[in-house]
Design a protein that fits this description.
Shape: elongated
Structural class: mainly alpha
Radius of gyration: 28 Å
Strand content: under 5%
Order of helices and strands: HHHHHHHHHHHHHHHHHHH
Oligomer: single chain
Length: 340
């Protein structure tokens, strides 16, 4: 009994600590807001609240305060930058705000006129131009930013992405490597390089995927891409191991189960493949390709009734799925007696 009382007491103390901590943080913003209320034109106080709300990702609050700052001094490039950032961040979360990216770009254009020596302005402008699918213009902005401050891994990465979209692979790879020279632990550059070499069917893809997984072993997309690379290069044992690694992180990865089914079909293990396709269907009940593929396996194994059922279900989900439609017609023609 004494041990239980001690445990309850400890919980009570912990709870009090959490509550006090919350109150302290709450009072911090309350006090700051009260100061702003008493001195509404003090931009230092507004910037302090913007910094607080940026950490919390309260973008609407940042937007409000940035507008206030700009109303006090419209010639301050940093205020334009803060407002542009808020508009851009909100637009990424709320696509209904379709005018916000344009507003962000407008304020950045004003900011770069007011201050042509701030690398952050050109870096954000480039990122916005990517959103507008203006990759050539984005590259110009990124170069302007890098001329002012070369050591920006994210800017090198985004410029590499722009070159990638323009099908300039060598330049893209060079940019991704530049990002890694600045920050050898920049996972996203390893991911991008892995994808680049993956498209070229180059085994360097595995090296870069492994480096990304060294930094983040639970990266589902990279785990999937690595297994897929082995599958596409017909290294089936490595692919099977790769999908097993994926399922340890995401047991219900429907595409992973589906691809594993295809490997087992290639190996002539149709009974095992049916289980893989069943797992894909369990993970995604609308996965009509998995129903079709499982039906194909059942047909090969001689289970005509189940094969027909799966083809029909695939067509129910996607009435225009030609493979299932053709397979159902063929199976019904071949098994007239069964269908009477």
């Amino acid at each position: 009994m004494m041990r239980n009382i001690a445990f309850i007491a400890m919980l009570f103390l912990c709870a009090c600590g959490v509550t006090d901590d919350k109150k302290e943080k709450q009072s911090e913003i309350v006090v700051l807001s009260e100061k702003i209320k008493n001195d509404p034109t003090n931009t230092d106080l507004l910037l302090e609240r913007i910094a607080y709300n940026n950490k919390k990702e309260y973008d609407e609050s940042v937007l409000f305060d940035a507008k206030q700052c700009l109303s006090i001094d419209s010639t301050n490039a940093h205020f334009h930058y803060l407002l542009a950032t808020a508009y851009f961040n909100i637009s990424k979360k709320n696509h209904a705000k379709s005018d916000y990216p344009y507003l962000a770009l407008s304020h950045l254009n004003k900011a770069t006129v007011l201050d042509s020596q701030d690398d952050k302005l050109f870096a954000l402008k480039g990122e916005l131009l990517i959103a507008f699918v203006k990759y050539k213009e984005a590259i110009i902005a990124f170069n302007q930013s890098l001329e002012l401050n070369y050591n920006q891994e994210k800017t090198h990465l985004l410029m590499g992405y722009s070159f990638k979209q323009l099908a300039q692979q060598d330049r893209a790879i060079n940019c991704f490597r530049n990002a890694l020279n600045i920050n050898p632990e920049y996972k996203e550059s390893y991911v991008q390089l892995g994808q680049m070499y993956h498209l070229m069917q180059d085994t360097l893809a595995v090296l870069y995927y492994n480096n990304a997984l060294r930094i983040d072993s639970a990266d589902v997309i990279t785990l999937y891409n690595k297994a897929l690379f082995f599958q596409q290069t017909k290294k089936y044992n490595a692919a099977i191991e790769g999908y097993a690694d994926l399922f340890r992180v995401d047991a219900f990865h429907s595409n992973g189960h589906y691809n594993l089914g295809f490997i087992h079909m290639e190996l002539g293990l149709h009974d095992v493949a049916t289980n893989n396709f069943s797992d894909a269907i369990y993970s995604n009940s609308e996965f009509y390709e998995a129903y079709y593929s499982r039906g194909n396996c059942f047909e090969t194994l001689g289970n005509i009734a189940q094969a027909e059922s799966d083809y029909k279900r695939a067509i129910e989900i996607n009435p225009e799925y030609a493979f299932a439609i053709e397979a159902l017609k063929n199976i019904q023609k071949k098994n007239i007696k069964y269908n009477k």
